[in-house]
Amino acid sequence: MLDVGSDIGRLAVAMTGYLTAEGRFEGFDVVKKGVDWCQKHITRRYPNFVFTHIDLKNDLYNLSTDTAHETSFFPYTHDRFDVVTLFSVFSHMIPDDIDHYLSEIRRVLKPGGRCVATFFILDDVALKHIAEGRTGEFNFPYRRRICILDEKVKEANVAYEKDFLLSMIARNGLLCDALEPGLWSDNTRSTDQFQDLVVLRKPVASVRAGAVIERVKNEGRVLASCLTCARPSSYEFLVPGKLRWRP
User: Fold this and answer.
1) pLDDT of the residue at 80
2) If phi over 0 gives left and psi between -120 and 50 gives alpha, with beta otherwise, what is residue 140?
3) If we measure between CA atoms, which residue out of 194, 198, 98 comes closest to residue 154?
């Protein structure tokens, strides 16, 4: 599994009692101090837990570099992880960076793999409670394409309208399996999660167009007949230029 924004190992420490030696935990963070702590206190005891520092700019956590998230790539191969987690990460990122991270998550997830992430999501309930003053300091007063708490530190806390967020997720070829609203917008909910929890999935049947062509040829058909007359509904466009086979 991969933990994006591994911090000082909050999730990693819990996972040491779950993952066996055959499993592997990878984590990376933009704050070097947290990575150093994890390497010293976790990796030494559990060598299958590996932590990497990636020096990226963040208004709240790291101003020592100008390297932007949207220009970086996760240092892992394609289709590597069963699970990717991001707890309190997307809630500190602007749209272009989230869009890029979603594409990287899809790249490193195995087909059928899942991503668990938290956000501040502005749905009807959240907007109503903000207007009524029921969300405390999380009122996100600065609203443009994104909604932020502090205009000077834009990545301090960032909220997204639900439809806008779901469109970004779909555009990057991921499916949204679950969305559990958190306590931040309604403290009467029966959950212990403060932010909104989202579960995403990389489709199992998602393949490149070239692989579709090869499969069609192997079945003794020509691509043109399949796409135009034989079974045009057998293909769906997930994102521009990519096809999904639906038997």
Assistant:
1) 96
2) left
3) 98
109: tokens are 């997830």
Nearest to 46 by CA among 25, 28, 29, 76: 25
Separation of alpha carbons 96 and 102, rounded Å: 10
pLDDT value for 143: 61
Sequence-distant (≥ 6) Cβ neighbours of residue 114 within 8 angstroms: 82, 83, 84, 177, 199, 200, 201, 202
Q: What is the DSSP letter of 210?
A: H
Summarize pLDDT for 81-111 with one digit per residue, the tens: 999 999 999 998 888 889 999 999 999 999 9
Strands (DSSP E) found in 5-108: 25-29, 49-53, 81-86
* pTM over the 0.70 mark: yes
C-alpha span between 242 and 91 (Å, rounded) = 29
The enclosing H or E element of 211 equals: helix 209-218
**Number of other residues whose CB lies within 10 A of the CB of residue 155:** 20
Radius of gyration of the chain (CA): 20
Residue type, 13: V
- pLDDT tens digit string along 41-54? 999 999 999 999 98
